[in-house]
Design a protein that fits this description.
82 residues; mainly alpha; 3 helices
């Protein structure tokens, strides 16, 4: 039994273990890069969403503080006409 265990770490078996370890490291790096790419895309989308929310809130505040005549004009301009 002990000879089998020692045999796993000698000769060509050592090279096989080294290649398997190297392959595992490469796979780990590729998966990490993929995850980082996803996170970067999510962050970019969050920034776009935040900017859209800021613009929406600015428009909402402008309309809320606006003159009723200007609001009516904006409503006429932006209301869908079927």
């Amino acid at each position: 039994m002990w000879n089998r265990i020692v045999g796993l770490f000698t000769g060509s078996a050592t090279a096989i273990w080294a290649y398997l370890a190297l392959a595992g490291i490469v796979v780990g790096i590729l998966l990490g890069a993929r995850s980082a790419g996803r996170q970067a895309e999510q962050i970019a989308n969050m920034k776009k969403t935040l900017e859209a929310v800021k613009v929406r809130d600015e428009i909402k505040n402008t309309v809320a503080a606006g003159d009723p005549d200007n609001i009516a004009e904006l409503r006429r301009k932006w209301t869908r006409k079927d």
